[in-house]
Amino acid sequence: MTKPDDPNRVLIFDTTLRDGEQSPGISLNSQEKLEIAQQLARLGVDVIEAGFPITSPGDFEAVQAIARADFAPALPPVVAALARTHVADIDAAFNAVKDAARPRIHTFISTSDIHIVHQLQTTREDVKGQARAAVAHAKQYLEDVEFSPMDATRAELEFTAEVCQIAIDEGATTINIPDTVGYTMPNEFAELLRGLYALVPGLREVVLSVHCHDDLGLAVANSFAGLQAGARQVECAVNGIGERAGNAALEEIIMLLHTRQADVGLFTGAVTREIARTSRMVSRLTGYPIAPNKAVVGRNAFAHESGIHQDGVLKERTTYEIMDATTVGLDANSIVLGKHSGRHALQQALAELGFELSGQGLVTAFRRFKEIADKKKQVTAMDLEALVTDELRQELAGYALEWFDVEASTRRPPHATVGLSSPAGEELVGSFTGDGPVDAIFHAINAATGVDARLREFRVDAVTGGQDALGETSVVLEVGGVTGSGQGVSTDILEAGARAYVRALSSAIRRQGIQAEADAAGVAAPEAVPTP
Amino acid sequence: MTKPDDPNRVLIFDTTLRDGEQSPGISLNSQEKLEIAQQLARLGVDVIEAGFPITSPGDFEAVQAIARADFAPALPPVVAALARTHVADIDAAFNAVKDAARPRIHTFISTSDIHIVHQLQTTREDVKGQARAAVAHAKQYLEDVEFSPMDATRAELEFTAEVCQIAIDEGATTINIPDTVGYTMPNEFAELLRGLYALVPGLREVVLSVHCHDDLGLAVANSFAGLQAGARQVECAVNGIGERAGNAALEEIIMLLHTRQADVGLFTGAVTREIARTSRMVSRLTGYPIAPNKAVVGRNAFAHESGIHQDGVLKERTTYEIMDATTVGLDANSIVLGKHSGRHALQQALAELGFELSGQGLVTAFRRFKEIADKKKQVTAMDLEALVTDELRQELAGYALEWFDVEASTRRPPHATVGLSSPAGEELVGSFTGDGPVDAIFHAINAATGVDARLREFRVDAVTGGQDALGETSVVLEVGGVTGSGQGVSTDILEAGARAYVRALSSAIRRQGIQAEADAAGVAAPEAVPTP
Fold first, then answer.
1. How many Å lie between the alpha carbon of B38 and the closest alpha carbon of chain A?
2. Interface mutation vs chain B, best among A234, A314, A410, most B CBs within 10 Å
3. A173 contacts A139 by C-beta, under 8 angstroms
4. Contacts of A180 in chain B (CB under 8 A)
5. How high does pLDDT run on average in chain A?
6. Alpha carbon of B335 to those of B276, B285, B290, B381: distances in Å?
7. Yes or no, beta carbons of A292 and B294 under 8 Å apart
8. pLDDT, tens only, B219-272
9. What is the DSSP string of A350-390?
10. Of A164-173, A497-506, B300-309, B501-510, where does mean pLDDT reach its minimum?
11. Cβ contacts (< 8 Å) between B302 and chain A: which residues?
């Protein structure tokens, strides 16, 4: 990727599908990842880091599917894949991204002594050799190569500079400085970058990037300080997800630069109106909730969305608002369908939301829509989003919920009976008397499948307000030490919970297979590989 | 309050109960506020902003209860009350805090032209006069007076300086600079403070404070830049709650200063081990969830808490962690009681958690404990916290849930019957066939009470992992334009949901009364008063 012509243009590098997806309890399938990638392209991000292909066949396939996708924008996003400095990592990364219009390999190795000694258990000389060989090997495959000196904020400046110079000498086109453990502070980080500019002459010829973690609540501020010090790529994730406290929140970076552009002078290529929808999609598919007070995308972020009647106070909108809710797309909720709406109206409404459905996909969506419309007077854009993303969740070869009966009362223990279909298509029935109706259903599912799954987390959110709102349920469970997560949507939270549980159980069983393969092959499990 | 002797000592001013409590959907009763204040004292905050007494009798009473409380620390926290520059506001603030060991009045008026013109509809001269009169009036009552030039980050520096000088001349002991709309950036904010130091000679004799909002994700970074520029009080809220995107997160400020103390040199008086418990209590009582990737207090904030088995990777803890989970009190979850545990064991366990219960309070807690212990094999510290805070929620004179029956199935619409007791003690029964079991119960409660409440939000979280986890439910509803919120805890989420709904309904009805009183008195409703 060449540097943008305008020196004030900031590149948005989204790592939701790589660093974000490494968060505990998140397990997206290929179809879900592809849907998020399409939405990121609509949002106008410059680079999508699609995954870490060496870590599992599933990750490889998802990166490949994204590399092969047709993206709507005229200039499709760069599709990047992560790789350690090992030859096998770089080969896997290249094979996964090679079909993209604009492929990138992102390779990394730590330059801090604490990582070199304790984690890599090697020497600085070896690190230099590995960095050189990795960039050279990647350059044999393609032009666009990014290099990250991992844990740079705790490393000796001179050594990091030396390694960056080596990467640039071998042809790296982007140098990314990660604050891997979320330790730095704005002024300190800016000083580090200025130090690198002074020590690495070639740094001005490539794109300098920043990748900050939020352990001390400074990810956005550190990234911003990095941009002010000369960086022109910022690595971030939707809703700030990522390892531990996560990455810099993409929506905050974009809206900070947008809102203060007149003073700061930097700008991105982002379509800000797609922010709210992107945030909802990622929250829904990952099962990670957004706090009401989350900047930009929280329910209360905009005063006039909060339900407080301040008409008498807000004589002038800008008195208490520096951003307009329409700028981030929060007004795009005007679509309303009813039980008499036809298939064409549904198709049009979905297209407005960015979902192009036809054929069997549309038939299924229309069936779900009719079920819901029979129960709800009005089906809104938010409901449609929830339904369509719910359809994406269907496991290819897992268990499926067929029916259930529950009796609950304060006067006797609740009893549940469930009917499932197995991956092979047999009907399975189980029942249980539990401590609560949800407990009873979940145990009944265990009884039906014969799998001893243990619940780790359970959460329900209403999609929209109103007594007849859709309930969106999130389950994380564990089967023999392997976790699985699932979500479900219904006007009935017991049904939504049961669907989520069955999906989480199917996902855990699938991941057990992946883990077993990894163990057999003697490679580390995906989640145990440290990354920038 | 005098300035601390050590010039590097930073004062923590907590506004959870004032700015935080103004968030939509939060309505804490006096007992809940008092419990949070006691926990803030254990956490070692220096100042508790307890409320805005003029805005409602309920707020006045809560501030008064906190002012009169016995706090465990040898040096009890300052108890502050907010007041506009009006005489009535300052009188109410003084009357509410006057019994505190260390009372403070915090008065404010905007210095930005956009606020002066559009919101105050007055002139700069009038603002100067109001600031002068307000501080002088407050000083007649007490020594410790804080003044805030609201919206200072969008005001002309010279005018803000002039108003601050007036406040200092009249005896203000703390000058607080608010970024009311969350607009500023770290370097810009530091420059503003340096400008004030240059223009206001008396500023070095008082405590300079900062109050930052998180609209652009920079609240912590801006506060930190303010401290580096010389401020020594930081206004913040637990979990970063507050108007719109909220205030700087207290836990991030404390842990940032703690983790980087060797480099920055600033320190607080906070007892970091109380952070996790404080965060859980505030989340539970406000019904505001914490994102898993929230810095310091999110479920994933600490790598080794995340459930990922990285034993092979974490050869040295500091390789990937800059903070230890024990530092913020995340290990304090070792208490486990069972169904055979007696009243004394419960009392001891509660005391370890900071709850001193005896008499009727202990009897009630023991009854609830036994109910839960019959259903769960193990009752953990987290469960006990949830139960005890649930008891705090009992409305004084509201409806109460007595019993319910629900039948739910995928094969026919769910049906619910509920029994309630009215505030007057009569038994009320209602039933309904709904779209889901929760919908059916909520409508049945409407039928029983004859109140047409409309659900706005519904959320369920599991308190701990495990199939038999306690479910914690949060409901926001609306009755005739007035919102009410309620939470409920049970192993049965339908029961927890019904309790939360009944409490929210009682709260909305109580608030309708307050609103009607305010309307009759011709004063603005509490939520419509703009604050820093």
1. 24
2. A410
3. no
4. 320
5. 89
6. 15, 22, 23, 5
7. no
8. 999 999 999 999 999 999 999 999 999 999 999 999 999 999 999 999 999 999
9. HHHTT----HHHHHHHHHHHHHHHHH-S-EEHHHHHHHHHH
10. B300-309
11. 244
Where are the extended beta strands (E) located within B156-225? 174-179, 207-212
Residue B13 CA to residue B78 CA, distance in Å, equals 9
B114/A249 touch (CB, cutoff 8 Å), yes or no: no
Residue A246 backbone class (left: φ over 0; alpha: ψ -120 to 50; beta: rest): left
Give dist(CA B504, CA B487) in Å, integer.
8
Interface test with B, best of A153, A252, A293, A485 (most B CBs within 10 A): A293
Mean pLDDT of A96-110: 98
Find where tokens 């001005």 sit: A204
Q: How far is B465 from chain A (nearest CA, A)?
A: 4
Residue range B443-451: mean pLDDT, rounded: 95
CA neighbours closer than 13 Å in the CB half-sphere of residue A198 = 9
Q: Between chains, do B493 and A438 touch, taking CB under 8 Å as contact?
A: yes
Helix axes B87-97, B124-141, angle to 10 degrees: 30
| Confidence bin at A466 (pLDDT 50/70/90) | low
Task: Report DSSP letters for A297-326, one per residue.
Answer: TSTTSSGGGTT---TTT-SSGGGT-SS-GG
Distance between CA atoms of residues A279 and A256, nearest Å: 16
Nearest to B216 among A255, A309, A460 (CB): A255
For every residue of A507-531, which 3-state class applies, written as one string? HHHHHHHHHHHHHHHCCCCHHHCCC
Query: What is the spatial distance between Cα B364 and Cα B434, in angstroms, rounded to a whole number?
Result: 34
Could you give the 3-state DSSP secondary structure of residue B488?
Answer: strand
Closest chain A residue by Cα to residue B110: A319
Q: How far apart are CA A314 and CA A530, in angstroms?
A: 49
Task: Return the percentage of chain A with pLDDT > 70, whole number.
Answer: 92
Cβ contact, residue pair A454, B461, below 8 Å: no
Angle, vertex CA A506, rays to CA A453 and CA A62, nearest 5 = 135
Q: Do B295 and A457 count as a contact with CB atoms less than 8 A apart?
A: no
Chain B residues close to A459, C-beta within 8 Å: 459-462
Q: State the smallest CA–CA distance between residue B61 and chain A in angstroms.
A: 23
Rounded Cα–Cα distance for residues B7 and A115 (Å): 36
Q: Report ipTM (2 d.p.).
A: 0.91
Using CA atoms, how far residue A366 sits from A346, A349, B98, B301, B410, in Å, is 7, 12, 64, 41, 19
Q: For A112, name the nearest residue in chain B, comparing CA atoms only.
A: B319
**How distant is the Cα of A446 from the closest Cα of chain B, in angstroms?**
11
Q: Smallest Cβ distance to B245: which of A181, A301, A436?
A: A301
Among candidates B331, B499, B472, B486, which has minimal Cα distance to B403?
B499
Which residue shows structure tokens 């609201």? B150
Residue of B410, B457, B468, B531 best to disrupt the A interface, most CBs of A under 10 A: B410
The 8-class DSSP code of residue A4 comes to P
Spatial contact of A52 and A18, defined as CB atoms under 8 Å apart = yes
Sign of the alpha-carbon dihedral angle for A390, A393, A396, A402: negative
Helix or strand (DSSP H, E) at A89: helix A87-97
pLDDT for the residue numbered B313? 44
Q: What is the DSSP string of A397-451?
A: SS-EEEEEEEEEESSS--EEEEEEE-TTS-EEEEEEE-SSHHHHHHHHHHHHHT-
Pairwise CB contact (< 8 Å): A460 & B459: yes
Q: Closest Cα partner for B11 from B48, B36, B42? A: B48
The least confident of A116-125, A395-404, B142-151, B239-248 is A395-404
Residue of B nearest to A24 (CA): B306
Lowest mean pLDDT among A54-58, B14-18, B107-111: A54-58
